[in-house]
Amino acid sequence: MDNRSPAVEQKASSTVHRPSSGFAQAVFAITWKDLTAELRSRELLSAMLVFALLVIIIFNFAIELEPKLRPVITPGVLWVTFVFAGTLGLNRSMAIEKDRGCLDGLLLAPVDRSAIFFGKMLGNLVFMFSVEIIVLPIYSVLYNINLFNPGLWMVILLGSIGYAAVGTLLSSMAVQTRTRDMLLPILLFPVIVPVLLAAVKASSGYLQGLEMTEITPWLNLLVAYDIIFLAVAYMVFEYVVEE
Amino acid sequence: MIEVRKLVKLFGAKKVLRGLDFQAQEGEFVALLGPNGAGKSTFLRILASLSRPTAGSVRVAGFKLPAQAAALRARLGVVTHLPLLYGDLTAEENLRFYGRMYGIVNMSARIGEVLELIGLAPRRRDLVRTFSRGMQQRLAIGRAILHDPDVMLFDEPHTGLDQDACDMLDNVLREVAARGRTVILTSHDLARVEDLATRFDVLSRGVIAASTDRSGLRGNLLDFYRQALAN
């Protein structure tokens, strides 16, 4: 500015860089921030984990299964567990931003606002994976399921990406309302039916050892769902978070 | 530096801003006064590109809103009564995070400089949730000036602060303004802004009802404010 002293102006220009931050830099900054804060507080992960373990154990007591039926039925139990626990995490992750006005802080940054979506989504995905890594061995023991199946891991990866993409987008909508805790599941569950259905069917197919021709349509649906919702979120996130 | 013409903002059927005209020159420190519900925060949110105008033209630092909002945000600093900080990060980590979002180079040097300015250098490694309200507000100012903005918007920054914290905040505000930035500050504390600002605008019923610079104040600011609202 014109009336700044030359010394101040020179100092500022040597230390500060004004053009917008890079897209990837902003995405990773938001993810880093979420992970660092969570490592300190452990609020979100512990709630997700306890809830996931309770659900999977309750299902184990509630359903008596013949060994041959386990690969058919239990993928549903597994994905319901992931979805319920994930909803807790999605709600909390966005509430942290809203409650202290931090969402405004993010929106004020000179970055493409879709970077905020991808940063939050990546953080949510890491939280989901963390819960899944702990829940899966317990699931394996409780239901006597062999986890050494690369196909199953791929399904979990694709399903989690789709779930985190839709969940992050809808939680950023729900967090603007007073009834956000109730609203998110109501908005989210109908929209994730395709990803849930495809993930359950594909997981079941791998666990039963079905032919790839029977599993591939479900994998294709998962990939298509992921691509479509990542693209939709990229295009609409700015309007979703705007007042 | 800031030029607003015929600004209208509607929330549903409710008209919050009704054809507001406003101008601020480079280096000016404008106190925006007005009763609750006058539209001060809405006006500041529009200037900050956090809300879209319903009608009218808004130009800040040469950038037209909302079309050039992303470019403007690199030159804008905003402080509200909420700190916009993460309690589970340290003071330094909060600034480092926002520094990455703004693409700041020589980050460590700049963070050190800002922490010195706001008097929080000794607490740089403490979690923000352990800070008092006053310290959080000083750090919020540090966050807002980290990228050396040309325009600064303060939305009731004194809210919830005790007397000492307000005095300390005022010193930081003077330091911020002394560096030639254009500052717009909303407040209900007339006595406090009378010492800080160079111009006083009263916003009432969605328009600027009266405006004066320091030399135009005939009595005290309270008289000017009451007269503006009475007209």
List descriptors.
heterodimer, A: 243 residues, mainly alpha, disordered N terminus, B: 231 residues, alpha/beta, 6-stranded mixed beta sheet, 4-stranded antiparallel beta sheet, 10 strands, globular
In brief, what are we looking at here?
Chain A contains 10 helices and no strands. Chain A has helices at 6-15, 23-41, 43-62, 70-99, 102-107, 114-143, 150-174, 180-191, 193-208, 212-241.
What does the model show?
The complex is a heterodimer of chains A (243) and B (231). Chain A is an all-alpha fold. Chain A has helices at 6-15, 23-41, 43-62, 70-99, 102-107, 114-143, 150-174, 180-191, 193-208, 212-241. In chain A, helix 9 (193-208) packs antiparallel against helix 10. The two termini of chain A are 31 Å apart. Chain B is an alpha/beta fold and 231 residues long. Chain B has eight helices and ten strands. Chain B has helices at residues 40-47, 69-73, 91-101, 107-117, 133-145, 163-178, 190-196, 221-230, and strands at residues 2-11, 14-24, 29-33, 55-60, 63-65, 76-79, 151-155, 182-186, 199-204, 207-213. In chain B, strands 6-7-8-3-9-10 form a six-stranded mixed sheet, sandwiched between helices. In chain B, helix 3 packs across helix 4. Chain B is globular. The mean pLDDT of chain B is 90.
In percent, how much strand structure appears in the residues of chain B? 25-35%
Strand arrangement, major sheet of chain B = 6-7-8-3-9-10
Average pLDDT confidence of chain A is 88
The end-to-end span of chain B amounts to 29 Å
Overall body shape of chain A? globular
Give the beta-strand count of chain B.
10
Low-pLDDT residue spans of chain A: 1-15
Overall mean pLDDT of chain B: 90
What is the string of SSEs of chain A from the N terminus onward?
HHHHHHHHHH
Helix and strand element order of chain B = EEEHEEHEHHHEHEHEEH
* Most extensive contact: A-B, 43 and 47 residues
Terminal CA distance of chain A: 31 Å
Rg of chain A, rounded, reads 21 Å
Largest sheet of chain B: 6 strands, mixed
Task: Look at the helices and sheets of chain B and give the structural class.
Answer: alpha/beta
Note the total helix count of chain B.
8
C-alpha Rg of chain B (nearest Å): 18 Å
